[in-house]
Design goal:
By secondary structure, this protein is of the alpha/beta class. It has 13 helices and 12 strands. Helix 2 packs across helix 5. One of its GO terms (biological process) is nitric oxide catabolic process. Pfam families: FAD_binding_6, Globin, NAD_binding_1.
Length: 403
C-alpha cells in the first residue's frame, strides 16, 4: 500500500495549482514528447489522441484534479479505477512507470524553469509515485482476477474473425473467437476489448472497442463505426474478413451494470455509443428477474441506425420502452408504434428534463458534449451519483468536467 503523503508535500502540491492552471497543458505536451521517443513506450499509446491533442489535455486535467483534491483523494476514486482498467486493457506493467516518471518530472522542470525548485520537484516525485503505487496495486488485482477467471487470460491473446455483419451504412459488427479454441472469459455488459494491431503503412496501433454481444457466448462481438480517414476503423471495415487474426486483451472497464440490478434502467446513447447498451440489453432482457428498461438513442437517420431491427424486436412485446431520435431525417409514417417512439431532431436537455425517472439508474454513452449535457440534466434533477453512470470514448479529455 502506498504511504500517505506528508503535510509539507501536500501543501506544496496545493500551492502549485495556479501554475498547473497556467502551464499544465504545456507540461503534459512536453512529457509526451519525451516519453514517445522510446518506441516501446510509444507503441502502448493510441497515437490518434496525440495527433489531435486530446491525450495531453486529458492528462493535464487529471494532474490538475489530483493537485486540487490532494486532501480528499477519495473524490478521484472513480477516475483512478477507470485509469487502472484502461491500463490493464493496454497491458501496462509496473516496469513502464519509471519511464513516465522521468518524462513527467523532466517536463515540469523544463516548462517551469527556475520556478521548479528542488522542493517542488521532490514533492511532485513523491506525488507521482504515491499515485503510481495505487495504480500498480489495483492493476495487479485486476490482472490476477483475469488470470484466474474461467476462460480468462493476461497479456495478448490471438483471436480470429468468425463473421461480420453490416449493422448500418456506417457500423459493421465483427464476431471474434479465440484462435486456441479454448473458452473465453465471461465479460460484464458494458466492458470493452483492447486490440494490438499492426496496420500496413501505419505500424502498431492500439484501440478499445466496446463489446456489443451479451455475456455468456463462445465469442465476443464488437461493432465499429467507420470514421472517414480513421486508420484503424477503415482497415477493419475494408480488410478484416473471416479468418483475420487479431491480438486481444481480456475484457476491461468499469462501465457495467450495477450489482444488484436497479429497479429500473435507462440506457441513453448517441451514435456508436449504443454498442455497450446493446450488450446490456442482451443481459437485462434475458435475466430471470425482469427489469423495466427505457432505451433512448440518437442517430442521424434510419440508414445510420445500428441494431434497429433488434430494438424493434424487443419493443414489440413491451420488454423495452424505446425512443429513437433522427437528427437528419423525419421518422417514417409507417414506423410500428408498439413501445417504440421515433422523433425528429436530437435528444435535448429540455426533452430529457420531461422524462426523468427518479428511481432509475442511467447509463450514458456517446460524444463528449452529448454526455456532458445529459449528465448535467440528471445532476440538476437531483439524482444520486450512483444513479448516473457514463462511459467516455478515447482519451476522455472532458471527463473531469462532469465527475
Amino acid at each position: 500500500m502506498a504511504s500517505p503523503l506528508d503535510d509539507k508535500t501536500r501543501s506544496i502540491l496545493k500551492a502549485c495549482v495556479p501554475a498547473l492552471e497556467a502551464h499544465g497543458l504545456a507540461i503534459t505536451a512536453e512529457m509526451y514528447r519525451r516519453l514517445l521517443v522510446n518506441p516501446e513506450i510509444r507503441d502502448l499509446f493510441n497515437m490518434s489522441h496525440q495527433a489531435d491533442g486530446a491525450q495531453p489535455k486529458a492528462l493535464a486535467l487529471a494532474v490538475l484534479a489530483y493537485a486540487r483534491n490532494i486532501d480528499n483523494l477519495g473524490a478521484l476514486g472513480g477516475m483512478v479505477e477507470r485509469i487502472a482498467e484502461k491500463h490493464v486493457g493496454l497491458n501496462i506493467l509496473p516496469e513502464h512507470y519509471p519511464h513516465v516518471a522521468d518524462a513527467l518530472l523532466g517536463a515540469i522542470a523544463h516548462v517551469l524553469g527556475e520556478a521548479a525548485t528542488p522542493e517542488i520537484m521532490d514533492a511532485w516525485g513523491k506525488a507521482y509515485w504515491f499515485l503510481a503505487d495505487i495504480l500498480i496495486g489495483r492493476e495487479g488485482q485486476i490482472y490476477a482476477a483475469h488470470a484466474t477467471a474461467p476462460g480468462g487470460w493476461t497479456g495478448w491473446r490471438a483471436f480470429t474473425v468468425r463473421g461480420r455483419t453490416r449493422e448500418s451504412e456506417t457500423v459493421t459488427s465483427f464476431e471474434l473467437i479465440p484462435a486456441d479454441g479454448k473458452p473465453i472469459m465471461r465479460h460484464q455488459p458494458g466492458q470493452y476489448l483492447s486490440f494490438r494491431l499492426d496496420i500496413p503503412g501505419h505500424g502498431p496501433q492500439r484501440r478499445n472497442y466496446s463489446i456489443s454481444s451479451a455475456p455468456g457466448a463462445d465469442a465476443y462481438r464488437i461493432s465499429v463505426r467507420r470514421v472517414r480517414g480513421g486508420v484503424v476503423s477503415e482497415w477493419l471495415h475494408d480488410s478484416m474478413q473471416d479468418g483475420t487474426s487479431l491480438l486481444v486483451s481480456a475484457p476491461a472497464g468499469d462501465f457495467t451494470l450495477a450489482d444488484p440490478t436497479p429497479t429500473s434502467v435507462v440506457l441513453l446513447s448517441a451514435g456508436v455509443g449504443l454498442t455497450p447498451m446493446i450488450s446490456m440489453l442482451g443481459a437485462l432482457t434475458t435475466a430471470e428477474q425482469p427489469t423495466p428498461i427505457r432505451y433512448i438513442h440518437g442517430t442521424r437517420s434510419a440508414r445510420t441506425e445500428a441494431f434497429g431491427a433488434y430494438i424493434r424486436t424487443l419493443s414489440a412485446p413491451g420488454r423495452v420502452r424505446g425512443d429513437v431520435f433522427y437528427s437528419r431525417q423525419a421518422p417514417a409514417e409507417d414506423e410500428p408504434a408498439a413501445a417504440l417512439t421515433c422523433h425528429a431532431g436530437r435528444i435535448t436537455p429540455a426533452w430529457l428534463k420531461t422524462q426523468i425517472d427518479g428511481n432509475a439508474t442511467y447509463y450514458i454513452c456517446g460524444p463528449d458534449d452529448f454526455m456532458r449535457d445529459m449528465v448535467a440534466v440528471l445532476k440538476e434533477a437531483g439524482l444520486a451519483k450512483e444513479q448516473v453512470r457514463y462511459e467516455f470514448f478515447g482519451s476522455a479529455d472532458k471527463e473531469i468536467l462532469v465527475t
